[in-house]
Structures are given as C-alpha cells and as structure tokens.
C-alpha cells in the first residue's frame, strides 16, 4: 500500500534544495499541483517562497523564484491575489533595494526578481499593487530600464510536417506497399501490423519531441 503523498512543504524543500544540479520540472509540477489541491496550499506556498527567495544560497533562491513563476503560471487567481499583496511584494523588494538586502543579494537573483516583477505588471493587471511596487523601484533608481519580458513564451516551433510523416522510413514504406498489393490474406495481416508499429513509432517520436520542448 502506497504511503501518503509528500506534503507541499516537503515537495518545495526538495525542488529548491541548493544541492540540486538542475531544476526539476516534475518536482515543480508536483509543487503546483499541491498548491491548488492541499488545504491552505496557496498561503503555505507563498509564505515558504517568501522565505526561500531570500536564501543566502544563490541556487536555492533562483530555484525558489523558478517555482514562484511556475505557480503564477499554473495556480490561478488565488495565487495571484496572494503575491499581489504588499506583504509578499515587500519581500521581493527587499532583495533588490539597497535599503534592505540589495547590497548582499546575488546579481543573478536581483536580475530575476526585477524580471518577474516587470512580467507580472503585464500579466497580472488585476493586481495593481504589483505595478505600484515596480514603479516605486523605478522612481528610486533601483530599476533603470525595463528588463526582458518573461511571460507568454513564444510557442516552440512545431515539428516540421512532412507528407505521410508516419511512413517516412522508405524501407518500411516499400515493404508496406508490397504487402498491401498482395492478395494473400496473411500479407494483408502483416501489413496491418506494420502500419500499427509505424504509427506507434511516430507517436513515440512526437512524445519525445514534446517532452524536449516542455523541458
């Protein structure tokens, strides 16, 4: 019998660990799922992320910011409302403002914080405090110019469509043509099996392409 699912806190600890070599897309997806399904998930996630983004460990902070943006993309208006409050925005501001932690924050972290705040001003227009916080940083000279927009990524190019892509293997295509022209029922049965195997191979190829795009 399977044990209980890991809690949101455990999942978050795992995918923001400074020991991680790479970001864990599956772990981040599990966090997003827990945020929307666990009781009080939004509040728990925002509270923990507010702490983790201020980690002195650059890796932990950057991973927490990656999880934060994934939650913004996946966890809906309740999450947007929570990060749109000054209580959370102030924790972001502390990372870039020289009055607080700005002089001790890693440059990569400061850059990402500003990028996220700017992106949210465009993506989360229903949360006006985000724009207020961002404009305040501009007035203070903390933000000199708008950074690149991180949201709404341009769609990954679709795999090139080729006519009869399923049958692009010439050798199999020739064999299939020969079997289909045969009047022997056994050959037609073999042709049917070959078509199925070619379709499955194409599905696997598409799945691999999709997985690469997602990753």
From TrEMBL:
It comes from the Eukaryota. Residues 169-215 form the GAT domain. Keywords: Protein transport, Transport, Ubl conjugation. Coiled coil: none annotated. This is ADP-ribosylation factor-binding protein GGA1. GO terms for biological process: Golgi to plasma membrane transport; intracellular protein transport; protein localization to cell surface. Belongs to the GGA protein family. The lineage of its organism: Eukaryota, Metazoa, Ecdysozoa, Arthropoda, Crustacea. SUPFAM superfamilies: ENTH/VHS domain, GAT-like domain. It is found in: Early endosome; Golgi apparatus, trans-Golgi network membrane. GO terms for cellular component: early endosome; trans-Golgi network. Pfam families: GGA_N-GAT, VHS. InterPro entries: ENTH_VHS, GAT_dom, GGA1-3, GGA_N-GAT, VHS_dom. It is a peripheral membrane protein. Residues 15-145 form the VHS domain. Transmembrane segments: none annotated. PROSITE patterns: GAT, VHS. The keyword Protein transport applies. CDD domains: VHS_GGA_metazoan. Its main location: other. One of its GO terms (molecular function) is phosphatidylinositol binding.
